[in-house]
Amino acid sequence: MTELSSIPLPKDEDLTARDWVRTLAKYREPSTLRSSFELAVSAVPFLLLWALAWYCLSISPWLSLGIALFNAAFLLRLFAIQHDCGHGSVFKSRTVSDWVGRAIGVVTLTPYDVWKRTHSIHHNSAGNLGKRGIGDIMTLTVAEYKALSPLRKFQYRVYRNPITLFGFAPGYLFLLQNRLPFGLMNAAKYWVSAMGTNIVIIAALVLIWYFGGLMPVLLIFLPTTLLAATAGMWLFYIQHQFEETHWKAEEDWQLHDAALHGSSHYVMPSILQWFSANIGIHHVHHLHSRIPFYRLTEVLKDNDYLATINRMTIRESLASARLHLWDEKSKKLMSFTQAQQLYG
After folding, report:
1. What tens-digit pLDDT sequence spans the chain (344 residues)?
2. Counting CB atoms within 10 angstroms of each CB, which of 95, 116, 136, 317 has the fewest?
């Protein structure tokens, strides 16, 4: 009889994506104390900095603006915590997670239940060429692009231009699009979420205007919101838009393979990793979305393979802004110029 100890264990690189899901299950339990602490060290500084920026309006508008821009980092972190609430990974109680998420959604201008549903669709269809358009950045294949009319090609080029994606889109998305439950217009639940969030936001802005006039809105609310939205848009983009990402036709698509190979590991300095609540460890998050954000680094420490695949530094990520089309032949994301050179 063969001794159990003599049977070679599979190497990390030999594990399938499904194997990794089972391996990661042990990290899924949140700590109520830790989650409460992480929420507090995000929300309390955000509110204090908001108050400080308002106070500084009487000293120097530029000082107030500087504080507001710095406060965008805490707003980004709150959005990331709201994101985890949507996955039920912040508190053991789903109800508590949902109501915390709804409260944060007022600050981030995001109707929580609408976003939670569209983000769930994203997780269940990322990398699936047959299910694009909800909760993602639209990506055409080379063949699809070549089949477009000149006008539609122009429209797609404008859409994928960095000025659009990171200049206009963040403000449009958070200030305008989020006001209606696009994609879920037929369900009352999502109208309640959107309209309820809108009412509280409007009430808060009216109070700010009543007590402070227009300047707190222009120099604190808008700069904080727009900078956080822009940073969030970049993070969302880079998490799936990189050269060797993973796209498959619907009949060949597999959820866990797409999660592991189609999500990046965005390597950032510790301070940026903290403010983004480890969202850069996105391949692990997509493999097992119930893992609390503060345990993602633990996963990497325990599993060398996950710490090394799909790594991308900030410098390396900048090149991804020039990638626009998925080439089904080479299995790579490429630029318009590359597609033209290869296929005419």
Report:
1. 334 333 333 455 567 888 888 999 999 999 999 999 999 999 999 999 999 999 999 999 999 999 999 999 999 999 999 999 999 999 999 999 999 999 999 999 999 999 999 999 999 999 999 998 888 899 999 999 999 999 999 999 999 999 999 999 999 999 999 999 998 999 999 999 999 999 999 999 999 999 999 999 999 999 999 999 999 999 999 999 999 999 999 999 999 999 999 999 999 999 999 999 999 999 999 999 999 999 999 999 999 999 999 999 999 999 999 999 999 999 999 999 999 999 87
2. 95
